[in-house]
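TL;DR need structure tokens for one chain.
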Amino acid sequence: MSTRAVSGSEIQKIKGEIRNAVDSLIKGCESLNIDQAFGIFRDFPDFRMIAMDGSLCDYQTYLQNNIDYLAECSSFELTTLDERIDILASDIAIFSWIYRVVATLKSGERDLIEKAGATFIFRQIEDQWKVVHYHESTSPPTRLSAE
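>> reply
TL;DR here they are.
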């Protein structure tokens, strides 16, 4: 981990790179493209995710849960309500995200989450920003009947 001070121009560059990484996640989810959606997550033994039910899981479990859910969807929409990027060092950043989810299932039903929160801890590894820890906070989705 770098301990040197981060200049204003470096902060703006890092924020842009983090923003681009999160945009890739959003676009991947919305196009139901697993590789694009979850390419920002780092598959390594120390990866941890705290799920909305309070469980702690590793990368493979997190990825499989998302693969299984997105396989049930015919469309998926994420709307950013608020976000913040904090740069801790030249190679560590925190992305705090408040968002809304509307997922249309292949059955015609829809899952709605009006407001959810997530915190991503990013590390720059081999010149790429990767999520090494992820915490999600939300209530279970409201399932709306097919119309």
